[in-house]
Design brief:
The structure holds two protein chains of two kinds. Chain A is mainly alpha-helical. Chain A is built from eleven helices and no strands. The chains are: A mainly alpha, B alpha/beta.
């Protein structure tokens, strides 16, 4: 376990020194900007009306979380290409430990961006009036969104184990971003859909039982994250470092 | 790049591996270090399979040093060596003693806490070799090491003590490995074309160079072709 913490610390420091940490926190935090800057919709349910602030928040968060997947893909690909992963593995570090450390580090950075984003959105959207269950319910919905973010990061780790850094980043952003953004824009909260916690977030003011829907969707995303991590570990195990 | 390669290296051998085309020798070392996966075949080093990641297993017995690009430029020599010791599972007291020994041997004290971006590639290369040797491994795999060092300094640092220590050294400049190796192997198009004592070169009046090694492999081929069938 001490190896995992040592490598997680190394990964976080590399993210910090390469400005990827700051950039990712800023991108995720910036998802709350429309909620802060746009005026509330006068008639939000009118057909053809522009998306309301909650939908904007969920959609931009989807894009930002996909960028998190891209950062994971780029990072794992870059570690392979530069030889840093090879050096660590030649020091008898198990490959899955290295991959898991990068997954945890990028996910932690995404979480660090989601906290201020959530607080800003809560304040700007007048959370107490918007969410029936109060801050706890809002926090639980955001937690399920974070599981979706972890899914995007796991996807990034998988493509990073297979592709060079830049293609890995682009593929991860596209593969993770499209379903999440569609769920947010189209207000899709189907539990089986990977990005549905964002659909729940986008409809937080209308849903009858948003927490239940978010937890269901989050559970599915958690299962998918675990499956993707296993696939990523298998791919990394066979990759040339 | 490697095909049907069958190579046995005895304990204590100092083997120089050269390849035509370049790159196969590096790949062989990367396969031996577990960084590249062969599509088939088996490899065992000192009776160990690569899967033995325990602190008492692979990490303490086999060591690999490749390109210094692998080290993060913001890291210092101290951080790299501490990480190497920690990953190898050494206890705190032992870590201090080993750190002290390699810092002295590789003249790293002056630049110990400077990031490599400031101290330069020479310090990074010395640190990489120091990290490879810090655990006193039985088998050392060196992929064209210490290229940016002055030749005498390089030869001094690569002169590894220990009669039972096995060294596999991949090099693009065989002449600079004189005095460091006892055998030479040539990989030609992925296959083993030569595995001979270094004295064989001298016996045939050939230099320790890529051309000389290649000529010795040709001579061995011709001799094998002319030999009467057993």
């Amino acid at each position: 376990m001490s190896r995992f913490w040592a490598i997680s610390g190394l990964a976080l420091r590399e993210l910090w020194m390469s400005f990827r940490l700051l950039a990712l926190v800023a991108v995720v935090t910036a998802a709350s900007l429309p909620a802060l800057l746009l005026p509330p919709a006068v008639v939000p349910d009118l057909a053809g009306a522009p998306p309301d602030r909650l939908t904007w928040f969920a959609t931009l968060l989807a894009v930002a979380l996909a960028v998190g997947g891209g950062v994971a893909g780029f990072s794992v690909g870059a570690e392979r290409r530069r030889g840093s992963a090879g050096w660590l593995v030649s020091r008898a570090l198990p490959r899955p430990t290295l991959l898991l450390a990068w997954f945890a580090s990028v996910a932690l950075v995404v979480a660090a961006g989601m906290v201020p984003a959530g607080v800003l959105a809560w304040v700007a959207l007048d959370g107490p009036a918007l969410v029936p269950g109060g801050p706890v319910a809002f926090g639980l919905v955001l937690a399920s969104v974070f599981v979706t973010a972890a899914l995007a990061v796991a996807l990034g780790c998988l493509v990073g184990a297979l592709l060079p850094p830049l293609p890995a980043a682009l593929v991860a952003i596209l593969l993770a971003g499209i379903p999440m953004a569609v769920a947010a824009i189209q207000h899709l909260a189907l539990p089986a859909m990977p990005g549905s916690p964002l659909g729940v977030l986008a409809t937080l003011d209308e849903a009858a039982r948003p927490v239940s829907a978010a937890l269901q969707a989050g559970g599915v995303a958690l299962g998918l994250t675990a499956a993707l991590l296993v696939l990523a570990a298998l791919a990394f195990e066979r990759a040339d470092l | 790049m490697l095909d049907g390669l069958d190579l046995t290296v005895g304990v204590g051998t100092r083997l120089l591996v050269v390849s035509e085309p370049e790159g196969s020798a590096s790949l062989l070392l990367r396969v031996l270090a577990g960084l590249a996966r062969p599509s088939s075949g088996t490899l065992r080093l000192a009776g160990l399979a690569r899967g033995d990641d325990s602190a008492a297993g692979w990490a303490r017995r086999v060591s690999y040093a490749g390109s210094d690009q692998a080290l993060y430029p913001w890291m210092s020599a101290r951080e790299v060596l501490e990480l190497a010791l920690r990953l190898a599972g050494h206890e705190a007291e032992e870590r201090d003693a080993r750190m002290e020994a390699v810092v002295n041997r590789f003249h790293l004290r002056g630049e110990l806490d400077q990031p490599f971006s400031r101290s330069g590639p020479q310090v990074a290369q010395r640190t990489l070799l120091a990290a490879a040797l810090i655990g006193e491994p039985e088998i050392v795999l060196l992929d064209d090491p210490l290229r940016s060092l002055e030749p005498n300094e390089r030869a001094r640092l690569l002169h590894l003590p220990g009669k039972r220590r096995t060294l596999l050294l991949a090099s693009r400049y065989p002449a600079s490995e004189a005095g460091l190796v006892t055998r030479v192997a040539l990989l030609r198009h992925g296959r083993l074309a030569l595995d001979a004592p270094i004295e064989e070169l001298e016996r045939h009046g050939l230099p320790l160079s890529a051309r000389g090694i290649s000529a010795l492999a040709d001579l061995a081929d011709t001799a094998a072709a002319l030999a009467p069938p057993a």
